[in-house]
Specification:
Elements: E1 8-16, E2 19-28, E3 31-40, H1 43-58
Antiparallel strand pairs: 1-2, 2-3
């Protein structure tokens, strides 16, 4: 794995100003990048979107050696 490839991807759902916001966090050797993706009117919609975004982002990460 090169140093530019992400090691881990995860999402976070946070309530901000009455809306539910999805953040995508990508972990690299050098640190973590956090990107605001979208906001939703309900927590359920935000959590569903976060699950799909995390799944899609993780597709492109190679599994650890031994898996």
């Amino acid at each position: 794995m090169s140093r530019d490839e992400p090691m881990l991807v995860q999402s976070e759902v946070v309530r901000e100003r009455g809306m539910w916001v999805v953040y995508l966090e990508v972990w690299f050797d050098e640190g973590i990048e956090r990107k605001r993706i979208a906001e939703y009117p309900s927590e359920a919609k935000a959590r569903l979107a976060a699950r799909w975004m995390t799944w899609a982002a993780r597709r492109d990460i190679d599994p650890p050696i031994g898996f």
